[in-house]
Write a structure and sequence with these properties.
By secondary structure, the chain is of the alpha/beta class. The protein is built from 16 helices and 15 strands. It has two domains: about 35-65 and about 345-455, Aspartate Aminotransferase, domain 1 (Alpha-Beta Complex), CATH 3.90.1150; about 70-345, Aspartate Aminotransferase, domain 2 (3-Layer(aba) Sandwich), CATH 3.40.640.10. It has helices spanning about 5-10, 25-30, 55-60, 70-80, 95-105, 120-135, 160-165, 165-170, 195-215, 240-250, 275, 305-310, 330-345, 345-365, 400-410, 435-455; strands spanning about 35-40, 40-45, 50-55, 110-115, 145-150, 180-185, 220-225, 255-260, 285, 300-305, 370-375, 380-385, 415, 415-420, 420-425. It binds 4'-deoxy-4'-aminopyridoxal-5'-phosphate. 4'-deoxy-4'-aminopyridoxal-5'-phosphate binds near residues 124, 153 and 261.
């Protein structure tokens, strides 16, 4: 078949494809940007226009686009073996090597086993199934409930969906799974309790404790949370929060699941979000940055507590897994990607370039009347836009303020994601200071432009 021409591609855009997280009518009117090439922290559209990839694909392209080392590793694997099953007594080298590497990388957190999947949502489901089966093996089958945070995002499968803390992500698909409960998230900028971060951490940890007491601790399997909340609005908890959560979980014997799908592998300036807070969870959930999005992959890691429950039991089958888990190409990509992450110390680059980014955004906040809050760690940064800085009043959905600013940034060669008037900045971790300067200059101009338009009404 002849290569389809650019004209057809443009004409068919959003005509035959139902898009994720989109209103089909809106997207048909305002068609998605067609990305054709990627190089480092840059991407190019179908007309050859260059953009800084401020969203890092979907906060997953940590090592950058078009990395030769990763492409060569995938190609070499493809020439050897494109697929083999991990079910029923077979396996392959890349999965074995990757499991060893992941256990080594998470030694500080005490992970001893890796279970693979094809992405974040599945990795979350694996974590929940492991937690439930763990309690059955431990002789406490009534421990089945899950607790999560308001504004949490744990993917789109029914388990993770039932734990999600943003109603808009859940409502169209109700009824959800029974046995899921949510508690307050330590959102420093907006909460009904206090402006003091340390106090807020204590209050939220106490509310978690009370919810567990209310449900009866011996019915709760696990607490699941993101070390820094992502899709729910980029919420960085106070430093005290996670250590307190670990204490509350330990007090009640509850498993702690860290959903590190975004925070894993350097994004926050630390190798893992859990490490940033100095906490060892029982289960760590990975995807995205594990191989920078070259081939879909997820991993669910767990510690000796869970491993031993399975090993000590007789016939403790884990009856879970799917065809493409630990796909050889995905594992080969992960091995090459993690080599880059470690050798180039991308976590350190994220910390220093991210610090510079925050400084520049904080300065921008001073002169921009609609920048309510700037927050982040490493290269996981949120900029919350508000109608009124003093009252923190949000824009109405009719204003489309964030969407318009984000569109103007795009027109000027910078991609930043807007979620409910919070800009999500999550570029590749190889980003340079010069690219930060360009991003901030473009955002600054777009905000000034939209502020004038908004004032005129
Ligand atoms: N957990 C978190 C914290 C996420 O941010 C995401 C996706 N953004 C998921 C789970 C789901 O991952 P996936 O989209 O790969 O299924």
């Amino acid at each position: 078949m002849d290569r389809i021409n650019t004209k057809d591609i443009k004409a068919w855009n959003a005509e035959y494809m139902f898009h994720p997280f989109a209103d089909p009518n809106a997207i048909a009117k305002d068609k998605p940007l067609i990305i054709e090439e990627g190089r480092g922290a840059l991407v190019f559209d179908i007309d050859g226009k260059e953009y800084i990839d401020g969203q890092g694909g979907l906060w997953n392209v940590n090592a950058g686009h078009g990395r030769k080392e990763i492409i060569e590793a995938i190609t070499a694997q493809l020439n050897k073996l494109q697929y083999y099953s991990l079910f029923g007594g077979t396996t392959h080298g890349p999965a074995i090597e990757l499991s060893k590497l992941l256990v080594d990388l998470t030694a500080q957190e005490g992970m001893t086993q890796a279970f693979f999947s094809t992405g974040g949502s599945e990795a979350v489901e694996s974590a929940m199934k492991l937690a439930r089966q763990y309690w059955k093996l431990a002789g406490k089958p009534e421990r089945t409930k899950f607790i999560s945070l308001h504004r949490a995002y744990h993917g789109v499968a029914f388990g993770g969906l039932s734990a999600n803390g943003t109603p808009a992500f859940r409502q169209a698909f109700e009824p959800l799974m029974p046995g899921f409960f949510r508690t307050e998230t330590p959102y420093v900028y907006r909460n009904p309790f206090t402006d003091d971060p340390a106090e807020l951490a204590h209050i939220c940890a106490t509310l978690l404790d009370r919810l567990i007491e209310d449900q009866s601790p011996n019915t709760v399997a696990a607490f699941i949370a993101e070390p820094i909340q992502g899709a729910g609005g980029l919420i960085v908890p106070p430093a005290e929060f996670w250590p307190l959560v670990r204490k509350v979980c330990d007090k009640h014997g509850i498993l702690l699941i860290a959903d590190e799908v975004v925070t894993g592998f350097g994004r926050t300036g630390s190798m893992f979000g859990s490490r940033l807070w100095g906490v060892a969870p029982d289960i760590m959930v990975f995807a995205k940055g594990i191989n920078s999005g070259y081939v879909p992959l997820g991993a669910t890691m767990f510690n000796a507590r869970i491993e031993q429950a399975f090993r000590k039991a007789e016939n403790a089958w884990f009856m879970h897994g799917n065809t493409y888990l630990a796909h050889p190409l995905a594992c080969a990509a992960a091995l090459a990607n993690l080599d880059i992450v470690v050798k180039e110390d991308l976590a350190a680059n994220a910390a220093s370039v991210g610090g510079y980014f925050l400084d520049r955004l904080n300065a921008m906040q001073q002169r921009q009347p609609h920048v309510g809050d700037v927050r982040g760690k490493g290269l996981m940064i949120g900029v919350e836009l508000v109608a009124d800085k003093k009252t923190k009043a949000a824009f109405t959905s009719d204003d489309q303020f964030g969407a318009k600013v984000s569109k103007r940034c795009r027109d000027h060669g910078v991609l930043v994601r807007n979620i409910y008037d919070t800009f999500i900045i999550s570029p590749p971790l190889i980003l340079t200071r010069a690219q930060v300067d360009r991003m901030v200059d473009v955002m600054d101009e777009a905000l000034t432009f939209q502020t004038r338009a908004y004032a005129k009404g």
